[in-house]
Amino acid sequence: MGICERPWILEDSLDGRVVTFSSNNTQWRLTRKLSEKPWEGSDRSRDEYRDGDEEWDPCEAHAVYECEQTRGVQVGAVAVVKVRIDDDPEERAKEASGMRLNSYTRNEMEILEKLTAAACPVTPTLLAVQIDEQDPSVLRSEKCGFEWWMPGGYIVYILMNKLEAEPLELNSYWLDTTRQERDQIRSAFQKSYMVLRKLGIHHMDKKIANLMWDAENQKCYIIDFENADDDPEFANPAIWTDSNYFLWQLARSYQEPNW
Known about the structure:
Elements: E1 2-4, E2 18-21, E3 26-41, H1 46-51, E4 60-71, E5 78-86, H2 103-117, E6 126-133, H3 136-139, E7 140-141, E8 146-147, E9 154-161, E10 166-167, H4 170-175, H5 179-198, E11 201-203, E12 211-214, E13 219-222, E14 228-230, H6 243-247
Antiparallel strand pairs: 1-3, 2-3, 3-4, 4-5, 5-9, 6-9, 7-8, 10-12, 11-14, 12-13
């Protein structure tokens, strides 16, 4: 998967945008961007995919926004929405990839749908998904002289409940917490990990940045399922090993953990 470190969605380019989710007839206003990932796409060129059997995977920008409900049962409720925008600056004008979604986006929606149907208590709840065609008047950026939109491309809004938890950060975890606090986080993580495993979900993007911590309720949430498998074999049997602490950056050593 290739990445580009520059920001693709400017800080205020989507602020205030109202999105209608047709599946549940609600409207949500994007209030502020919380984070952004580099765009995601294949390391292989488009020509290689044309010559082979596989389809080219569209590149996309990906940001998380806080949003407020403006129409529906819970007006004023706060949630988060992932905005994923299909965009490639070199090819967008001549070869729009249309509404064929990036495989990571499709995968995340499918995994979240399964977890929500199972009422999984340690992951975000999927509230709705809206897939729209890009509106050039919204996505055009005059600030840097670059048009961010891709005519005919997609913009996907993945609406989830806002977790009452704080994201874990690697340096802060090791420098600003006590051994007792880290033990509490690890204990809660083990419980959450086993919940996922019993559901057959194998999260392959193992890192502390994909964990959120609710200190008051001693609960660890697992997030970001772009790179995850729905594999029933993973649940049979559902086994825990302490190496998971190391793999998720919650311990410093694989064999002899520095807790």
